[in-house]
């Protein structure tokens, strides 16, 4: 399974806000520059994050965006499930009505178990945890 750019970039957006938690609002243009993501794409990604009360917007000349909760209270699993619009690997594992074979499908259980294992892990990692374990990427010819 591959996570969408929406989830990957959304997680990077949230980590950037977490890194600056309690330091004041950040403009999307600053986040875009730091993360190498277009402002236009960040504008799309931030909408569901704001609706779900993970991010607050601050108006005014010193405005921007801040986390609505402390980084230790937001898990990677929550972000990914929100931006992927669910916590499943296959649509039929959450909604058996989408497939006429769901009641007899031998693989449906596998997809449910795999998704559960993945999200159990992602839900055990908070933004604060990622910031603590983050190490700079190696640079230079050895990298």
Note down, in words, how this protein is organized.
The protein is mainly α. It has a single domain, classed as Arc Repressor Mutant, subunit A (Orthogonal Bundle), CATH 1.10.10.10. Helices cover 50% and strands 6% of the residues. It is built from seven helices and two strands. Strands 1-2 form a two-stranded antiparallel sheet. β1 (55-58) and β2 (64-67) form a beta hairpin.
Specify the overall morphology: elongated
Give a short account of the largest sheet: 2 strands, antiparallel
Count of alpha and pi helical runs:
7
Going by CATH, the homologous superfamily would be Winged helix-like DNA-binding domain superfamily/Winged helix DNA-binding domain
Termini gap? 26 Å
CATH architecture: Orthogonal Bundle
Secondary-structure-derived class? mainly alpha
- How much strand content do the residues show? 5-15%
- The CATH class turns out to be Mainly Alpha
Tell me the CATH topology: Arc Repressor Mutant, subunit A
Main-sheet strand order equals: 1-2
Low-confidence stretches are none
How many beta-strand runs?
2
Average pLDDT confidence is 87
How many domains? 1
Q: Order of helices and strands, N to C? A: HHHEEHHHH
Helix content: 40-55%
Question: Could you tell me the radius of gyration in angstroms?
Answer: 18 Å
């Amino acid at each position: 399974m591959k996570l969408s750019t929406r989830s990957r970039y959304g997680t990077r957006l949230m980590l950037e806000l977490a890194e600056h938690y309690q330091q004041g609002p950040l403009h999307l243009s600053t986040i875009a520059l730091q993360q190498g993501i277009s402002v236009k794409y960040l504008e799309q990604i931030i909408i569901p994050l704001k609706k779900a009360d993970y991010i607050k917007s601050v108006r005014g000349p010193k405005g921007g965006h801040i986390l609505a909760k402390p980084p230790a209270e937001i898990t990677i699993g929550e972000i990914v499930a929100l931006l992927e619009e669910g916590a499943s690997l296959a649509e039929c594992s959450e909604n058996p009505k989408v497939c006429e074979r769901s009641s007899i499908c031998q693989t449906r259980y596998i997809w449910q178990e795999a998704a559960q294992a993945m999200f159990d892990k992602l839900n055990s990692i908070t933004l604060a945890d990622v910031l603590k374990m983050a190490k700079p990427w190696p640079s230079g010819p050895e990298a």
